[in-house]
Amino acid sequence: MAFYYKEVSRTFSEYLLVPNLTRKDCIPSKVSLKTPIVKFKKDEEPPIEINIPFVSAIMQSVSDDNLAIALSKCGGLSFIFGSQPIEEQAEMVSRVKNFKAGFVVSNANLSPEQTLKDVVELKSKLGHATIAITEDGTLNSKLVGIVTSRDYRMSRDPLDRKIKEFMTPFSKLIVSTTNTSLKEANDIIWEHKLNCLPIINDQQHLAYFVFRKDYEDHKENPLQLLDSEKRYMVGAGINTRDYKERVPALVKAGVDVLCVDSSDGFSEWQAETIKYIKEEYKDSVKIGGGNVVDKEGFMFFVEAGADFVKVGIGGGSICITRETKGIGRGQASAVIEVAQARDDYFKETGIYIPICSDGGVVHDYHMVLALAMGADFIMMGRYFARFDESPAPKTKLGNNYVKEYWGEGSKRARNWERYDLGEGSNLKFEEGVDSYVPYAGKLKDNIDVTLSKIKSTLCSCGAISIKELQKVARITLVSSTSIVEGGAHDVILKENNY
Ligand code: IMP
C-alpha cells in the first residue's frame, strides 16, 4: 500500500513569524547574514561561507558571468548555467574569476601618430576621457603616453595636431606594476592626486587602468565575496551526462563550487556523478546535489558525499512539474523536513551539511521564513531575472518594461539533461514555461532593500544571525482569512499605490 503523509504539504505563504522580544542589541546594523554553503565539521570553520544567503538559479535566463559579478559584489553567489557548451560555460566562469574589481582593461587606445580628431571621435564613441597611447595603438605594444581632456583645448588646438605633440608622455606618468593590489593603487592615486593610475606589465604594456572613482565604488561593497586571491567567487551547474569532461574544464577555469542540476535529484545518476567527482578531486572540489524534498533524499546525498543539498520540487515560478508529472511538495514542508534531517545528522556525527531552499520565493518575507525553517541559503530565479544584470532581453509590454524569464524545462532552454531519466536526449514534454517578469532595475538597489527588510524581520524575531533566528523563531500557520487581513484591505487604493 502506498505511503500517506499525515501532514498537508505546505508552502511559505501559509506561515507567519510571531515576533519575540527585540533586545536593544537587535538592530539591523548588527545583523550578520553570513552563512555556510558547504559541509564542515563541528568546531571547524566552514570552508566556504557567503555573506548574504542568496544564490542565483542555474538557469540560462538568470546566471551568466555578468549577473555573477554583480551578485558576488553584493556578497552572494551565482551558479552559472550548465545548459550550454562546456567551453562557453568555462569561459563565463573564467571571466568572473579574472574580473579584477577596480582594474579596467582599456578599450580606448590610439598611437602617437594619430591626431586630435581621432581622440575626439573615440571619446564621443566610447564616452571615455582617458585614452591610452601605445606604440601601435593596440594593447600589445608599449605604453608611450596618455591623453585626457586636460591635454588639449578644443577651442585652440587644430584637429590634425599629432597626439605625440600633446599627450602626457610615459616619462611624466606615474605608473605601477601588475603585482599592485587595489589598495596600493588607491594609495598611489591619493598620494599623487591622480585621476587614474596605469598598471603596466614587465614589457611596459598597459595591463589596466585603476580609476579613482572605481575604488570608491569598491569601498561601497563591503560584503563582496572574494576568494583567497581576492577574486570574485562563482559556482556552476553540471549535469549527470558530460561531467567527466565538464568538471575538469570548470575546475581549470577556477570555479569555487559546483552543483548537479536536476529537477529530481533522488537518482542513481546523481549519486554516481558526485561519487566520481569526490574520488577524482577529493575535497578540493566542492559539489552540491539536488533537488530533494524529504529526509530520504537528504540522506541519499549525504551518503553520496555531497557538500550541500538543494531542496525543492515543483515550487519554482516558471515550473509546471507538479501539473505535468504530479510530483513535488510544498516548499515549506520540504525545507522543514530536510532541515530536521540535517540537524539530526549533525547531532549524530558532528558533520554539518548546509541545505539550500530552491524556488518558490515570491515575497521577501518568504526568504526569512525559509531561513527560519532551517535553510542555510536560498536559490532564486525569478527574483534575479528581473534585474539589469540578468542575461535575458528587456522589452516593453504595454506600458511597462519586462524581462524575459524561461524555465530550464521549457522548449526554449533545450536543457534535456536536467530532465533526463537515462533514456536519451529529447524532451517529450515541457516542465517549465517561457514568461515575462517585471523589470526591476539594478541588482544592488533591489538587494539592498531586500536585505533591509530581512534584517528588520530578524530584529523583530529577536535574532542577529541566521543561526540565532533558527533557534528563536516562532512560526505560526495562518488561515486563508487571516491572509486576506495581511494585505491592504477594506480601503480604496490610490493609483500607483503598491
Ligand atoms: P523561482 O525562484 O521561483 O523562479 O524558481 C527557480 C527554480 O526553479 C530554479 O532554481 C530551479 O530549481 C527551478 N526551475 C528552473 N527551471 C525550471 C523548469 O523549467 N521547470 C521546473 N523547475 C524549474
TrEMBL record:
Keywords: CBS domain, GMP biosynthesis, Metal-binding, NAD, Oxidoreductase, Potassium, Purine biosynthesis
Reactions this protein catalyses: IMP + NAD(+) + H2O = XMP + NADH + H(+)
Superkingdom of origin: Bacteria
Sites where the protein binds NAD(+): D261, S262, S263, G312, I313, G314
Pfam families to which the protein is assigned, alphabetical: IMPDH
Matches recorded under InterPro entries: Aldolase_TIM, CBS_dom, CBS_dom_sf, IMP_DH, IMP_DH/GMP_Rdtase_CS, IMP_DH_GMPRt
GO BP term, example: GMP biosynthetic process
Residue stretches making up the CBS domain: 167-225
Cofactor list: K(+)
PANTHER family linked to this entry: INOSINE-5'-MONOPHOSPHATE DEHYDROGENASE, INOSINE-5-MONOPHOSPHATE DEHYDROGENASE RELATED
Protein name: IMP dehydrogenase
Species whose genome carries this gene: Pelosinus propionicus DSM 13327
